[in-house]
Each structure stands twice: as structure tokens, then as C-alpha cells.
Amino acid sequence: MRVSLEQAVAVLKSGGVVAIPTETVYGLAADATNDSALKKIFAIKQRPADHPLIVHIGDMRQVADWVTIFPDTAVKLAKAFWPGPLTLVLPAQLHVSRVVRGDEPTVALRVPNHPVALALLQQGGLSVAAPSANLFTQLSPTTAAHVEAGLGDAIPVLDGGACQVGIESTIVSVSANGQWQLLRPGMISQEAIAAVANADHQVSSVGEEVEQAVPKVPGQHALHYSPRTPLLLFKNRLALIQESEALQAAGLSCAAMLIGEGEMPTCQSISLPHSPEKVAELLYSSLHQLDALKVDRLLVELPPASPAWLAVLDRLSRAGYR
Ligand code: TXA
Ligand code: MG
Predict the structure, then answer these.
(1) pTM of the predicted model, to two decimals?
(2) pLDDT at position 321, please?
(3) In a domain, 220, yes or no
């Protein structure tokens, strides 16, 4: 059910949930100060209660309402990247709902860079907790139609068009002493974070593990961000084409997501340009599209294991097996 900005604000203020657009993915939003509203998010998503939520605020000045300390490093990051696809995990004030924190002593905050989300937060005078607006472990939505297809038509959706960044925000935790850690890669790269936050204060990094970002052993990682169709990952085009031929010979149907030019398999395929930004923007919508074909297997070509592709590799590695 599509709703207007005014209706969305009214629903949120009365303790309901609304799917809202952000520049990364659509979020399933509820008033971050209302526990019964927050619990609806977990129920709708079928999400475990110990997974904390990101609080979306309309302005950097509101950070003071949520944290015990806003370390210098975090202030610099916020100034450099907000509004934008960066989430900061900071020491939480005691009043911050345990439902939001998932019982952690910290709270995750971000100012989204989307005109509709910012209007909702600023005009509505709201702070909303919002995980991605999909069922737990399923593909994240980047359009209003994806939200409706995943959660059903009863969920109110504020349509803000297709998300431009396309994958979830980079998450960085900053402790009181200014040390920082990358918790989830995103389109703001670790290099960009380190340039602002000072690499010397980094605790540990997933960036040194680009290769490990793609799991080596099938089934040894939690499947997340997954389409319904079994998905296989390939390091090169030739191997993918050979697998598509083998599947077809065995009477199984398949469809492929390819990155860049080159030889094409005979099955249906989507070719994305060889650009991390473009692939991120179109990643989930391409997977939604391929999933809807209801073939037996999806075959996905992996990008190179280099830092610029880390976030895309991370999402793909959680979506399927190699
Ligand atoms: O781009 C995004 O971040 C999107 C849009 C809607 O803003 N939101 C999103 O939310 O991806 P979600 O719930 O799918 O992912 C939130 C992540 C979780 O993996 C959680 O572990 C982490 O944020 N997180 C939240 N609060 C945290 C905390 N206090 N400490 C550590 N991690 C936290
Ligand atoms: Mg999610």
C-alpha cells in the first residue's frame, strides 16, 4: 500500500511501521523511541531479537541525544560522509531502547542521503530505526515494488524511486578512545574511511581479507541477502559458461548475472557494466529479476578480488555458494 509523506509521518507517530526509501536500500521504519513499534519490525521481518537496528536521524546535531561521547574521529567521519551511506556505532546513552541496541552498550546512527527520507525525519521531527525492508536472510529491496513483493501489500510503503547506492551502508564502530573498526563493508570504502579517521587508530580490518570475503567452503557461512533460487558463484566467465552447459545438458534451467563484456552463455543473462558503483546500484534489482524467472540455478560471475569491489563481493558471498 503506497502512502504519502504526511501519511507515513502519521503512521510512525502512532506507533506503526512504514517502509521508507534511503539511498542504500529501502528500510522498514518505526519510531526509534517506541518499543512496541520497534517490536513490530522484528515480527514482520522474522528477525532474531538480538540483531540491533540502525537509528536514522535527520541531522548530525541529533547524535548528542543518543551517545555518551561523540569521539573526534566519529565527528570527522560524520562531517565527511553525512548525509550518506555510513553508519557509526557509538557508546549509547542509558535511555536508548534495548530493542534498538539488541542489548549492546552501543547504538548505530546514520543520516541517510535521500530527499524523501530526510524530509520525513526533519519535517516529522522523528528518529526512526530501520533495517532493510525484507524478510530476514532474503534479498534487500531497492524499489517500492521489491518491498511489496517481499513483505506483502499490507505494509505501508513510501515510494522514493529506485535506490542509487543499492547496497547497505558501510558500518564503522568508534570507541571512546577514538579507535575504529570496519564492521560491514559498503560503498564508502575502507580507504576513504582511513583517510579521514586515521589508519593508525584502526583496530582490525576486513579489507585485508578481500580474498576471504568470498567463502571457500559451501555452507560454512550464514546465507544472507539470498534469492530463493540456488545461486552459484564463479571466479571466471569460462567456468560459468561450462556450468551453464552442464546444467542444460542435465535438463536444468539457469540464468546468469555477468560483469563486463566477453563471451556469453546460452542461458538468459543480465550483463552489468564493469564498475563497482554500477554493479552495487543494480545488484539486488538484477538478482530480484533473475529470481523471478524461477529457473533451477542462478550463475553469478564474481568481480575481481580488489578493494574497490569489496562490498559487492561481500554481499555476493553471502548470497550463494562457490
Ligand atoms: O544502508 C543501511 O544501513 C540500511 C538502510 C535501511 O539504512 N539498513 C540496514 O539495516 O542495512 P540492517 O538491519 O539490515 O543492518 C544493520 C546492521 C546489522 O548487521 C547490525 O549487526 C548492525 O547494523 N548494527 C546495528 N546496531 C549495532 C550495534 N549497536 N553494534 C554493532 N552492530 C550494529
Ligand atoms: Mg538487512
Answers:
(1) 0.94
(2) 65
(3) no
